[in-house]
Amino acid sequence: MNRRQFLQTSAGAGLALCAAMPASAPLVRGADKAGRKYRTALVGTGWWGTNILREAIWSERCEVAALCDVDQAELQRCLGEVKKICSQTPRLYHPDHREMLQKEMPEVVIVATPDHWHPLIMIDAVKSGAHVYVEKPISHTVLEGRAMVKAARQADRVVQVGTHRRVSPHNVSRRKFIQEGKAGKIGMVRAFVHYGGGNEEPAPNAEPPKGLDWDRWCGPAPLRPFNKKLHTRGWREFLDYANGTLGDWGVHWMDQIRWVLGVDAPRRVFSAGGRAIRGPAINDGKVQTTDAPDHQVAVFEFDGPQGQPLTVTWEHRQFAGNGAEKTHPQQPVGCYFYGTEGTFHMGWLDGWTFYPVDPKKAPVHQDAQLHEPDQQNIRELWADFLDVIENKRRPVSDIEGVHRSTTMALLGMLSLKLGRSVNWNGAKELFVGDEEANKLLRREYRGPWEYPEF
Question: How many domains would you assign to the chain?
Fold first, then answer.
């Protein structure tokens, strides 16, 4: 039986649309509820994957065919959430996403695993014929991202990335404001994330919980001993599986800067930072700490819009939390665009505010427009995803553009690792005359996994 026959048979069998939705549940705007329904599968059933799946269900355009995770506890928790809003019971797969792709043949796959698994699962999914919604950052290394773009294009599949700030109504209006020149010429952008914290105590290693396939969780990355600091959400601060705050939070802001100003790739990058407060990382076989930097500054030099140079800086800190730098009572995060007509602040919970150079002019402000839970705009991004599948265009958060944004963050991490500046050729995706740096664009996979090559 081929894919087309399988899908026709499934439709004929009457797989029900998830219909037991609470009356207050938000719907995707413009969704044709009587139209095409997509067999949808989620790989990575944790907190954020469940947020995405919830919006897919509420769109009334998706049949939840399958859930897949290496952790049976997460699978059951997500299944419970699905049953709260949906009459359908998806099939559960543990731990192999490839078995799920082969047996279920989903038309849409959501990839919401830890970062180090994004490339292989996305590539397998598009090869199977599915369109993919993959979380950011798209990859752990630069050349994985290149392989993902090529795989999407070769398979002619839509790949939308979860940079939902591209569709936030207040971010869209911010982009229009700046592109219309109301902030003047932009010469510098400062992006920042400053949360509190401080010293870190090591935690003892332990046996993985029952139902968690830890070897599979580590997958192509190094196999560390299981530790509660890693699973379920702490992995973002372990460099074997993610790229710290710059690789996580930073991708959102790097993407916004590129998207708003229309710049492609930096030509020079320098970064400094470390673990001044948390101290040296520990992984001695008995206990572990995180190993990502507790503070970092990165500088990116661009050939900016209108031909003038553009300097972008990133800074994060996980200590000295206080109100001195907060732009919102809960949020010391955002970007400052510095222009000849004033300073434009793009926040998260606080929307945006423009402060004119002319003191006689009042600031201009727009509130954020976000959805619960977790103050996001997945709904609008999912609507764009479905529209793109049906109308054959590139999505607003297309894999290629967000690959560039992910690369920008990864270049900052590589400069930090090297301890020096690097010169980047964005067109060739190589460092200029720097073999030491070019070797860091990929890493060796743990067997039997093979690094994707295209």
Answer: 2
